[in-house]
């Protein structure tokens, strides 16, 4: 939502309480910021979901409460359509394909009675292909819809869209940048599965250098008390120093380990990730060396505490073996489903408030 | 629907009577079966539409009765939306494009008041492209929808999806395998056009070797009494022995003929098919020799009985000349429309029962 | 709509008054016409939107009145869904991508409570790719929907579709041919922005040779009184003689000018267009020479009358500088929004009448 709307409330947008924590800033100031950074948190405008950092504990709690309510709405919607977002129109503007994320948002909108305009491949959008700026596209699409869900290949695109639009924008992933709804559903899953967020012991496994999900998760979980994080990854894809330093500055304990079994025996959550072949370019040898190193299999289940869970942002290849799926501690498909509830909650909060 | 649900009935799934004819089997047993075969009929789980063989005469009759009711629902839906499937969400997961089939399913869902999540090109689905298994994709998509319509390029894919999913799966064509809703609409069209199914004389024309529609149709029509089938095809694409042997075993009379006019003069139904160029590979000469051999034109209409009809699964190229279209016996566009009614009937039966 | 329906009124289609101005003609006669031409106006069948020429002043006025009503409907639809087109199903059959136009039509349908079947890329439509004719595709799709919105790469395709279909067809652009809804929204925008259509002074700028929008606009505006048109374009893309002759024959004053500032100082509307690189083929030098010649920038705003507006069909590259956007006279995003209202009006008029 553009700044103008932040001071002049939209009639259809009773503000959820967490909005009031964020200060509106003049449009040009935000537009001038080249790259998103934690320092910008306070300057994020109201009514958009752009980056994980914009949420504090209170905002997270409110979103999670609404997500929990959404579980009941979704169960009730089979055979009796919810009318919460009836008459609202969401545009999914995807500049790169991500069917899982797109379907999840579109299901969320429909489960609440809303309607959807779909663009699966906006990059070949005739206008974009002809050289139209993202800003011009947004100004057109906002005339046809009530909320825009944007997936883009460029870091910072969601912020540019939000600065431009007079309707809410949700970032559904912008290149190597942010994917805040994934981060929210990850934290929500920990809360739903373990029952709390303070005092969690979390093992992050796999590609910690390139995976934006583990980076965002580390960032968000740091808002809670007595967190301990173990990093388990092949040498070529170790967690980067910026996150380590951030965790330290927030008083979060962390350590690196090369012993997945030992880590698994001590954790509440093992968060496994895919080694992303596409990040290794020509170095297929590095990829092959990295991918088989830390596999979650029945041996890991053997040492994992009974109350603990295995998470994964999906898609998975063979970094979790299929025989793990039937164990009740395999939480990754429940985690995917939580994406639906989180997105329902955000759509409700942004369009009609609590 | 997975086996678990077969014993624990889904609250939204009052079982249509034809379900009770099928025995649920343990999941692993079904999963272990490498290729679908008639012998597996009895082991098909409840609540999915996977292959033409799963339906007996009673099931077919029930589906056709509901399809007939759907004609009235569809006519009434212009200007007064049906609410039969209100609140239900169908995911069309298409790993290869088939716009005719997709639009037909999506129209069916909407004509009944339901909602749709569309994937036109799931093969480039970012997850599938990254190596995610079909099973993992299904486990995610079932969290977002109430029923999955799957089109896939691999034979057996629909069965694998059905074994995995806890919601109903409809096979919308899996490679050279099955396309059961096409088979159902073909048989329904014969019943609607001729008024009966017993005692039908049926000419199957064109590519009988590669066309899965004629194979499925031969299979299904064999369930009726006093059927006579004529095969009329170029030598390179003759009907294969498995179907001929099956027909013989079921007491269905059949013969091969190279005289389309003579066959047309004796039939109730001439079912023409396209010679599929893509099946000939490098042998364009074979394709060219085959394609012009048996054309349905005004000469065929001249000998065709007054009550008989011409059918075609579409798309057609020039194997039926355009001047045939205006003859009332040209049933192929009515046949395409019947696909809507059959799919409405199946969606209703699977989601809310009769 | 096919001729048959024109004499036998469709129960869902109370005829808007402008239909009665058009005479139905036998199907074959229309089908035989190779290329659309003004002379065919009177032979256009009822209930389709095929070309700008089919509308006279009275028809335009009625469409614009309904479009104005649609502004209120659209504003009211957030949170309380309109039911005007409830139960109606629109198929968007796009043989070339045009996301702006597609989203605009789909938003229009949904804002009125209708449903949509989408085909983003019908050219790879398996049937079209296999050689199915447009006519056969239309006969199938009309069985699944209540109205077809067709975008095609071939001039005349929309007319062929309309001749075939028994349901209304709207031309959403057919190659170098027509794009009548764009023409309607352009004229509607002039009326909304300036307050009248008679006595307008209009500057058409940019690519006047290849731009079908300026050609259609010139054609439509000629129906009004005391119009003056200025053509401002690089030599290689000058307005063609057919339009000039037509304007002269209609008593419309026009002149060519190479001085954009002088023209801007005298006009009510400056209609800027993009120089279309794709039309220049190998002659990149011609393109480069043409594209920078006439830019709408703050200098133009400096001489433009206070009441005047800048229009553009979008997408724009740099032929209007971004610093123009914040001027209240920059009407191009309002113009894009008007496309929604015009399409809502047409859908309502074609499906349920006034």
From TrEMBL, chains A, B, C:
Gene Ontology CC entries for this record: cytoplasm
The EC number(s) this enzyme carries: 2.1.3.2
Catalytic activity: carbamoyl phosphate + L-aspartate = N-carbamoyl-L-aspartate + phosphate + H(+)
GO biological process, alphabetically ordered: 'de novo' pyrimidine nucleobase biosynthetic process; 'de novo' UMP biosynthetic process; cellular response to phosphate starvation; glutamine metabolic process
Associated pathway: Pyrimidine metabolism; UMP biosynthesis via de novo pathway; (S)-dihydroorotate from bicarbonate: step 2/3
Domain Aspartate/ornithine carbamoyltransferase Asp/Orn-binding, chain residue ranges per copy: 198-349
GO molecular function, one term: amino acid binding
Cross-referenced SUPFAM superfamilies: Aspartate/ornithine carbamoyltransferase
Protein name: aspartate carbamoyltransferase
Organism: Brachypodium distachyon (Purple false brome)
Encoding gene (name): LOC100827799
């Amino acid at each position: 939502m553009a700044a103008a709307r932040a001071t002049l409330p939209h009639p259809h947008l009773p503000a959820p309480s967490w909005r009031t924590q964020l200060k509106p800033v003049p449009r040009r100031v935000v537009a001038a910021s080249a790259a998103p950074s934690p320092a910008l948190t306070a300057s994020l405008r109201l009514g958009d979901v752009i980056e994980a950092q914009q949420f504090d504990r209170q905002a997270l709690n409110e979103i999670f409460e609404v997500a929990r309510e959404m579980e009941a709405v979704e169960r009730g919607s089979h055979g009796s359509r919810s009318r919460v977002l009836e008459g609202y129109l969401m545009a999914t503007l995807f500049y790169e394909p991500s069917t899982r994320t797109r379907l999840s948002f579109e299901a969320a909108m429909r489960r609440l009675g809303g309607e959807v305009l779909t663009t699966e491949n906006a990059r070949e959008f005739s206008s974009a292909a002809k050289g139209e700026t993202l800003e011009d596209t947004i100004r057109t699409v906002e005339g046809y819809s009530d909320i825009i869900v944007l997936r883009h290949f460029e870091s910072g695109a969601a912020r540019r869209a939000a600065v431009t639009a007079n309707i809410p924008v949700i970032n559904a992933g912008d290149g190597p940048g942010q994917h805040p709804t994934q981060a929210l559903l990850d934290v929500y899953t920990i809360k739903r599965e373990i029952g709390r967020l303070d005092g969690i012991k979390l093992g992050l496994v796999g590609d910690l250098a390139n995976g934006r999900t583990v980076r965002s998760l580390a960032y968000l979980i740091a808002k809670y008390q007595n967190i301990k994080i173990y990093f388990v990854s092949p040498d070529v894809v170790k967690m980067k120093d910026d996150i380590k330093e951030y965790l330290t500055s927030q008083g979060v304990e962390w350590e690196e380990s090369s012993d997945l079994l030992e880590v698994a025996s001590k954790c509440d959550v093992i968060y496994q990730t895919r080694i992303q072949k596409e990040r290794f370019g020509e170095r297929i040898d590095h990829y092959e060396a990295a991918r088989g190193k830390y596999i979650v299999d029945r041996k890991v289940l053997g040492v994992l505490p009974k109350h603990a869970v295995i998470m994964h942002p999906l898609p998975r290849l063979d970094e979790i073996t299929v025989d793990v799926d039937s164990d009740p501690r395999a939480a990754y498909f429940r985690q995917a489903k939580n994406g639906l509830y989180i997105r329902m909650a955000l759509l409700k909060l942004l369009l009609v408030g609590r």
